Amino acid sequence: MNEKYGSLFESLTLPNGVTLKNRFVLAPMTHYSSNPDGTISDQELPYIAQRSKDIGLVITAASNVSDSGKAFPGQPSIAHDTDIPGLKKQADTIKAEGAKAIIQLHHGGREAVGDLVPNGDVVAPSAVEKEGAATPRALETAEVEQIVEDFGEATRRAIEAGFDGVEIHGANGYIIQQFFSPFSNRRDDEWGERLRFPLAIIDKVTEIVEKHGSKEFIVGYRFSPEEPETPGLTMKETFELLDALVEKPLDYLHVSLMDFHSTARRGADTNAKRIDLIKERINDRIPLIGVGSLYSADDVAAAKATGVPLIALGREMLIDPEFATKLKEGREDEIVSLIDPARTDHHGLTETLWNIVLQTKGWVPTKAE
Ligand SMILES: Cc1cc2nc3c(=O)[nH]c(=O)nc-3n(C[C@H](O)[C@H](O)[C@H](O)COP(=O)(O)O)c2cc1C
């Protein structure tokens, strides 16, 4: 291995005492490939096995905790006990490659798809209109409490299925972020207090882990630092969230960024990188995962050199699932950073994901045909 990549292969011990073998994280990625009822399909298993090799922490695709939260066709479900056998196969597949298996817990809220949820009933904190989207129905107070319970039940299922942990999906505009956002949460009951829902979910998840899991069970939290809307989340609100999160018994925080080096839009020094602002605010109180448009060995080395302890790769791991292995074996020259539409192995992607990647121009870097 080239010495300059050495620090990526150092182990890291999380606050709960669990040691990750290296600093690579597989970013959670929706693949649209589970069975129509949300159970794990056979095509998902080789896909995730291939992407678990030489990775410390593997985070699965967003998995819906309630039927009302389903936001993608082919989304995996963790909403029913009947999902557990398939989830167990998924956890076993990841762990067999030597990675820690983390399932991402998700509810789409207003981003759920009418055709995929019972009675087309799309729910959210408030019935806020948004251009180009149907207006959701505001949740009743009891329904909000039920969704908190659903995250708890999903955690119990993750434990029963043998996962090493869960990641609470508080990012990318889904229900947890919707409750935290001044744009989407206009409630006047107690859930209008915007930090209440994210913190209630964390408390429920950690309560279930104490009850059914072990000390080694990992609980992480993913967040998005800013929203484009006004009013909307800015770095200022993100700092408030971080201050609350570091007080909770979490094992890592995971920022969701499309570009690791992007700068702040509002609520902080707009010349500063979001990742630096977040790192500074956290001040090493909890491990942070950074992510976003890292495609080469040197991109990853530069990201690690910022002092962020864990580095997630998303699209690059769709393109080249052997990224970490090649780095480990001193074969960084062989890293592939473009999807090749002519490749007959389809880069090991499931058929559905392969077709979506090819059709969605500009989403994943692709070789010109
Ligand atoms: C195909 C695809 C599916 C994604 N699905 C999820 C998801 O289920 N949960 C999530 O938190 N982020 C999801 N993301 C965002 C990624 O986790 C990651 O933050 C983003 O792609 C930036 O990292 P990258 O440049 O390494 O891909 C998805 C991204 C892609 C490309």
Our measurement of the CA-to-CA distance between the termini, rounded to an integer number of angstroms, reads: 33 Å
Give the C-alpha Rg: 19 Å
Structural class: alpha/beta
How much of the sequence lies in strands comes to 5-15%
Proportion of helical residues: 25-40%
Small-molecule binders here are: flavin mononucleotide
> Helical segment tally?
11
Describe the biggest sheet? 8 strands, parallel, barrel
The multimeric state of the shown protein is: single chain
Mean pLDDT: 97
The overall strand count is 12
List the strand order in the largest sheet. 3-4-5-8-9-10-11-12
What is the string of helix and strand elements? EEEHEHEEEHEHHEHEHEHEHHH
Instruction: Detail the poorly predicted runs.
Output: none
Shape: globular
In words, what does this structure look like?
By secondary structure, the chain is an alpha/beta fold. It has eleven helices and twelve strands. α2 links the parallel β4 (57-64) and β5 (100-106). The structure holds flavin mononucleotide. Flavin mononucleotide (FMN) binds next to β4 and α9.
Concise description?
With 369 residues, the protein is of the alpha/beta class.
Q: Notable features of this structure?
A:
8-stranded parallel β-barrel, two-stranded antiparallel ribbon, 11 helices, 12 strands, about 30% helix, binds flavin mononucleotide
Topology:
Elements: E1 12-13, E2 19-20, E3 24-26, H1 44-50, E4 57-64, H2 84-96, E5 100-106, E6 123-124, E7 137-138, H3 141-161, E8 165-170, H4 175-180, H5 196-212, E9 218-223, H6 235-245, E10 252-255, H7 274-282, E11 288-291, H8 297-305, E12 310-313, H9 315-319, H10 323-328, H11 351-359
Parallel strand pairs: 3-4, 3-12, 4-5, 5-8, 6-7, 8-9, 9-10, 10-11, 11-12
Antiparallel strand pairs: 1-2
Helix pairs in contact: 1-2, 2-3, 3-5, 6-7
